[in-house]
Amino acid sequence: MTFNTLFWSGIVLDNVEEQDALKVLINNDGEKQKVQNAFEILLRSATTPAQCVAIDYYCLLQRDERWGRGNKFRELKEFVENRIDYQLAQDAYVRNDSEKKLAVGANHASSFYAISLLSYKCDSILFTNALIGNTDPYVIELACMAADVILLDEEKPYLPLVELLVNFAKRKDISEDVSMYAVKAISAVDTEEFDGFLIDMTNDERIRVASTAARWLGEKNFTKHKDLLFSLSEKWPETDTYYEVYELRLLLNDHQ
């Protein structure tokens, strides 16, 4: 396994020990104990780049679990989650002149991605404040992708977060992916309070966004909304259509 940090490519860490530890992770150089020592050096560092490289590395191990490889550092999961919280509480990372390839707020990028991958339900206020503090489109997309983890099964969701997501869902000046992730996140709320919003979004002129809203509306309560869902499916193209429409039609076929 080779490691290429997700959001900190090309970073030069502050001291020789941390830079050597990074090289061990990148090259997967040595036995498990040597790699673990390198990982912990970065995880326990006081610097933002080192901590975030460690978060990225842990995410790589977690992704590899799908291929039957266990996460060999699972016992450090709580420490990693503490680092995620710590980074969300920090201001968006400001690049220096040698770090222009990094996203503005790369520390939050690492944290949002980890929340999504690890299904880590962090504090809603902490998450929301970090999202508010970001302007980088890629970081915002990662936050919207992770937001469903925060809102899932919430009977009383943190309304400032929902309001942010509603805004991102409706905006036409940003990536459609951002809007779709925002819609999906709002659908995760465990009440019907926002079903009206999802119904409104099925009328969005962007078919990918509208079909995403329809699909997740159906996942929440198919029986109640089935007539609307079949009607929407019929008005969208049968061929050369979007994957999101295809997913909705799969849902409809499952209920026929």
Please give the domain count. Answer: 2
Low-pLDDT sequence parts:
none
Shape: elongated
How far the N terminus sits from the C terminus, by CA atoms, comes to: 45 Å
How would you explain this protein's 3D organization?
This protein has 256 residues and is an all-alpha fold. It folds into two domains: 1-120, no CATH class; 142-256. Helix content is 63%, strand content 0%. It has 13 helices and no strands. It has helices at residues 16-27, 32-43, 48-64, 77-89, 106-118, 124-132, 137-151, 159-170, 176-187, 195-201, 207-220, 222-235, 243-254. α4 (77-89) crosses α5 (106-118) and α7 (137-151) runs parallel beside α9 (176-187). The chain starts with 15 loop residues before the first helix and ends with a helix.
Helices and strands in order:
Blueprint: H1 16-27, H2 32-43, H3 48-64, H4 77-89, H5 106-118, H6 124-132, H7 137-151, H8 159-170, H9 176-187, H10 195-201, H11 207-220, H12 222-235, H13 243-254
